[in-house]
Amino acid sequence: MNATPRRTVLVTGSTSGIGEAIAAAFARDGAEVIVNGRDPQRTDGAAERIRATAGNGEIHAVAADVSTAEGVHALTDAVPDVDVLVNNAGIFGAKPAFEITDEEWSRYFETNVLSGIRLTRHYAPRMVQRGWGRVIFISSESAINTPKEMIHYGATKTTQLAVARGFAQEVAGTGVTVNTVLPGPTLTPGVKVFIADRVGDSIPFDEAERRFIAEERPTSLLGRLIRPEEIANLVHYIGSDGASATTGAALRVDGGVVNSIIP
Ligand SMILES: NC(=O)c1ccc[n+]([C@@H]2O[C@H](COP(=O)([O-])OP(=O)(O)OC[C@H]3O[C@@H](n4cnc5c(N)ncnc54)[C@H](OP(=O)(O)O)[C@@H]3O)[C@@H](O)[C@H]2O)c1
């Protein structure tokens, strides 16, 4: 019986939060993992933390801004091939709809959508040539339940669903799958700041978390923020050999916050 080969896994935006947890999950499984963020020190720091828990996983750090074509070129020059691409890097924030400027709309699309498109255009055809690959876009429950104070963010997350489905159709029957994962509200450094902005930072975080879920995400069946490792569990599975029949799908790991039986 042939053993599964060691996979090379690139997780964009893996210096913190969900991306770091995803990178750590693949690393614990013995993969060769490329950690990415914009800042070399933060990227090295995350690689060091993951290395400490990785067992026989091999960890590399490549700092590159994936919101620009130049940054993506720098990344693909440093890492020409991967077996698993996780398009996780993303930005979010709240702003009234009429106040979102053209520049902000562009920045959200460059960071949350074009980054993944550029990287998939580079890596997926090479996966097809090798006959195996996994591309995973990290979208959000906001793709479906777009909060009115985050329409720029929600629009990028909805677009990712269409983009991933299109790429999945393009690589049909090749051994390469393309899927989208939709996390719900998850306790990451970015979300801690976001909640402090929404609920106020004068109360203990436990209380702010409870209030945020009760008041702003009342449909959550989990009744708490999701932990990054809980998102990583699903992404790790979708990136595995075992997930060979799941492609072109949008998969929720949202604590039931989307009030629907199917995505
Ligand atoms: N947390 C949630 O509740 C939640 C829910 C649904 C979906 N999501 C999605 O999950 C993903 C991760 O969210 P998170 O909460 O873990 O975010 P986070 O804690 O703010 O981390 C964001 C990561 O993205 C990196 N990043 C941002 N812009 C980048 C760029 N231009 N180039 C390279 N890296 C970049 C950051 O690295 P540096 O700052 O070091 O550059 C950091 O590692 C996002 O796509 C988000 O939309 C999150």
Short key terms for the protein model shown above:
oxidoreductase activity; 263 residues; Rossmann fold; oxidoreductase; seven-stranded parallel β-sheet; binds NADP nicotinamide-adenine-dinucleotide phosphate; 8 helices; SDR_fam; EC 1.1.1.-; alpha/beta; NAD(P)-bd_dom_sf; 45% helix
What does this protein look like?
This protein has a 7-stranded parallel sheet with strand order 3-2-1-4-5-6-7, sandwiched between helices. The protein has 263 residues and is an alpha/beta fold. Helix content is 45%, strand content 14%. Helix 6 crosses helix 7. The chain is globular and about 55 Å long. It folds into 2 domains: 202 residues, 3-Layer(aba) Sandwich (Rossmann fold), CATH 3.40.50; 39 residues, no CATH class. Helix 5 links the parallel strand 5 and strand 6. The mean pLDDT is 95. It is built from 8 helices and 7 strands. Bound molecules: NADP nicotinamide-adenine-dinucleotide phosphate. The site of NADP nicotinamide-adenine-dinucleotide phosphate has 31 residues, from helix 1, strand 2 and helix 6. NADP nicotinamide-adenine-dinucleotide phosphate (NAP) binds next to helix 1, strand 2 and helix 6. This is SDR family NAD(P)-dependent oxidoreductase. Its EC number is 1.1.1.-. Keywords: Oxidoreductase. It is an enzyme of class 1 (oxidoreductase).
